Amino acid sequence: MPTLSGKTALVTGASRGIGRATALALAKAGAQVIVHYSRGAKEAEAVVAEIRKEGGRADAVAADLATPDGPQALAEKTRRIVGDRLDILIANAGVSKAATIENTTIEDFDTLFAVNVRAPFFLVQQLLPILQNGSSIVLVSSLAAHAAVGTLPAYSATKGAVDTLVKHFAAALGTRGIRVNAIAPGVIDTDMSSFARTEDGRSFTLGMQALQRLGQPSDIGPVAAFLASDEARWITGDTLRVDGGSKL
Asked: How many beta carbons lie within 10 A of that of residue 94, not counting itself?
């Protein structure tokens, strides 16, 4: 387990799924965790309660990252809690929409890019004044950025954009000692991938994986904690696939 004692961390979309697992993993490693949510207030408070029960430090904050001023609002709330020091940013919040090219609407397309690309870009911008030398930023990409999986052309494009941002952010922020990486999960058993819980969906998922089980949020959280830690101090500008050997 990496050591994050004394570190402060913000995890977006942390009320459930991969974000929740990541918040718990960071807290277990000793970090103070800000649990961001958009609508799941009860779920976010439950994550905070679980962390505090184990002796950790956590707070829940709300912000709608689909709106243009959402990242700035979240950054301001974060600064009220941590002051002038943030060590870890895990930009996990995201939305998905399964639709063919023909059935994708402009509204859906814009929402996907607003939450999955615009929000992390401007959240990084707004948090730069308090990100420390040695800080770690982890964005969440997807298997869909590297392979055609289902009817997700617009969603996949957002994750391809995330991979591109990682390289540019890493190059621009490296002189400040800030590392930037991404995690690319495969199909994970979350509400966003609920199709995998059906018989056909499970069969499809296992058919493209080397490891024959459904991925769980707990398979991803510790990887984020690793990338945020000093153990990953020589890794930056990379996208780490965590997908059970999907689409090999």
From this structure: 26
Annotated catalytic residue, options 97, 155, 156, 229:
155
pLDDT (tens digit per residue) in 69-117: 999 999 999 999 999 999 999 999 999 999 999 999 999 999 999 999 9
Give the pair of three-digit tokens for residue 128. Answer: 């730069």
Contact 57, 7 (CB under 8 A): no
The domain segmentation of the chain, as residue ranges, is 8-242
Please identify which of the residues 38, 96, 136, 141 carries the catalytic annotation.
Answer: 141
Q: Which two tokens stand for residue 65?
A: 């990252």
Q: Which of 142, 156, 229, 246 is catalytic?
A: 142
Q: Is 155 tagged catalytic?
A: yes
Distance between start and end Cα atoms, the chain: 28
Under CATH, what is the fold of the domain 8-242? Answer: Rossmann fold (3.40.50)
> Which one from 7, 28, 97, 159 is the annotated catalytic residue?
159
**Residue 156 bears catalytic tag:** no
Q: φ and ψ at 6, to 5 degrees?
A: 85, 0
> Residue 197 above 80 pLDDT?
no
How far apart, in Å, are the Cα atoms of 80 and each of 77, 113, 154, 198?
Answer: 5, 28, 35, 43
Q: CA distances (Å), 231 to each of 1, 141, 218, 224, 244, in order? A: 10, 21, 19, 12, 22
Percent of the chain topping pLDDT 90: 88
CA distance 41 to 75: 18
User: Which of 187, 197, 153, 220 lies closest to 18, judged by CA?
Assistant: 220
In a 10 Å sphere around its CB, with 0-12 CB exposed, 13-18 middle and 19+ buried, how is residue 66 labelled?
middle
